[in-house]
Amino acid sequence: MSGLKNDLLLRALLREPVPRTPVWIMRQAGRYLPEYRAVREKAGDFMSLCRSPELACEVTLQPLRRYRLDAAILFSDILTVPDAMGLGLYFETGEGPRFERPLKTGSDIRKLAVPDVAAKLGYVFDAVRTVRRELDGSVPLIGFAGSPWTVATYMVEGGSSREFKTIKGLADNDPAALSTLLDLIAATTIEYLNAQIDAGAQAIMIFDTWGAALEAENYRRFSLASMQIIVDGLTRERDGRRVPVILFTKGAGALLTDMAGTGCDALGVDWTTDLSTARKYVDDRVALQGNLDPATLLESPDKIRQGVAEVLESYGSGPGHVFNLGHGITPDIDPDNVTILVDAVHELSPAYK
To answer: Any catalytic annotation for residue 40?
Structure first.
């Protein structure tokens, strides 16, 4: 892989042979790290941190200084896209993201348009370029976005939700309006991710955090179909190499079978589905990423090593596995426990190659 000192992640995502399983961690730049908290305080608030290419670069690189990770993931947020659409994103302490102008009606949705991505989200692309320069080819950089369904839940509910009553009501009562919104988000996300790739992102991940809130038929209609549009619209080769695409629906289970048919290169798997089962669902058509329960990092060193061993054993031998947590690392984790996890992957995974 030209220009990369460590290309294990990119090779594994394409199911090519690697000498050991590559490892990175969802939300690896985050509140569990004291150095992250210091930069967050300096920035003043979360979105100010996201909007500063220099500070976003700094926190992107922090976990790579501590751990033998095989990838950096851009520090940003999935809600930058609706923020660019003018919904007024802000964060309440202890409450999570909120929008000043949520979409209350189908009429609200029909007033939206694809924003000028370069003008509204240029700070993200500046951060990508800054990170790539600072990485200097040490490991690949992952860019990302939220799935249209997941992003739409925040736009319609006005923030985080557990029941998703408003958007599910929209799906039942005005599915055409919901489809219009999802198509708009998908079109914006294609531009957004392709601009990240142009700026230097070497792999792409689409986070569908709330797809499993839908029953299977509506998942295929409202979540998977929108991700399919994005996969079809992405730049898949850059500088003579493949740009792998990872889809992750938390709680997907048997829906992994459908996801594998999108043309993506890899699927994230949460801890509720064994990798051995997931591998059967996808019939080795795509790589798999995951899937240690983040709560394992609250356990003893021996339990963490045991958890790593069980994940590796569950995937089994052969190419196509990227080690990760089954969801993002939580703020209550001791950073030293991440060292134990990463070192265990380095030590134990070669036996499966």
So the answer is: yes
- With beta carbons less than 8 A apart as the criterion, state whether 106 and 33 touch: no
For domain 8-352, the CATH class is alpha beta
Could you give the CA distance from residue 40 to residue 124 in angstroms, rounded to a whole number?
Answer: 17
Question: Is 77 known to be catalytic?
Answer: yes
Whether the ω angle into residue 291 lies within 30 degrees of 0, i.e. cis, is yes
pTM of the predicted model over 0.90:
yes
Task: Tell me the longest C-alpha to C-alpha distance in the chain.
Answer: 58
- Mean pLDDT estimate for the chain: 96
Q: How far is the CA of 321 from the CAs of 141, 208, 278, 286, 324, in angstroms?
A: 18, 20, 11, 9, 9
The pLDDT tens digits of the residues spanning 99-119 come to 999 998 899 999 999 999 999
27 classed as catalytic: yes
The residue extents of the domains of the chain are 8-352
User: Rounded to whole angstroms, how far apart are CA atoms 166 and 210?
Assistant: 14
